[in-house]
Structures are given as structure tokens and as C-alpha cells.
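Input record (one chain):
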Amino acid sequence: MSGTPYRLVANEAQSFQGSNVPGKGFMLLPEQARELIAKDPKNAEVVFPFLNGEDLNQRPGAIASRWVINFCDWSQEKAVEHPAVFATVEQEVKPIRLKATHSNSLAPSWLPTDQVFSDAVVVIAASLPAQFALLDRLLELNHTR
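The corresponding structure, as predicted from the sequence alone:
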């Protein structure tokens, strides 16, 4: 096979790779997330379930085993409006960032969603059962080769 590959416009926005979390200090156990949200319900604006492949494949209901702090593309001034969450980031992330990059920027740069997916997860944004049937069959054929 030769030639120049072309992007299929019809496939645009059909799948995406999950987020690369810029530091372990942004990760929370479910208990920590619940505690932050109980302390201030407004914290639910920046604390999200973080789904990885194991959660999706082995946990009934695809319930997240971890949560993540996501300040979106906010400025530090806006992020500090969530003091308990911001304090967690300052305590867990800032010291590492200061050592590694000599920068005190705490604003991560990933896109906001109601759930955050691990970078090891590829999401197929399809809604028709036939699309999933075809994908399943293709994966099965590929696996048996």
C-alpha cells in the first residue's frame, strides 16, 4: 500500500484519548474526594471521578477507584476560590513542581469534563449499537490473528 493518507472527516470527534494528569498530587482516593465535597459542595466543581481501564472493565457500573482535582484552565486566583482543594494541590504538587521546574504554577491544563479518563483509556464516542458491534467484531478478529 502506498500513497498519502487522508483524514476521514466523518470520523472527526468520534474518539479521544483520556487525560494525562500532571502529577500524582492531583489524584485522590474516593474518601478524600467525598470529604472535600462534604466540606464544601462547591468543591464538586473541581473534583471528578477518574476512570481507568480497570474501572471500566472490572468494576460493575464503571465506578471510579480514584478521583482527580481538575482546575481546568483556571487562573490561580480562580482556583483559590476552592480553598480546601487548592490547599491539597499546594501541599502535594507545589513542592514537587518547585524542585522540578522552578515554577509555582498550580494551574493544570486539561479539559474539563464531568468525568476524567486515564490516558490509557481510549473513548469511542458512538451511540449506535451497530457501531459497537462492528468495533467488537474488529477487535475479536484482530485478537485471533
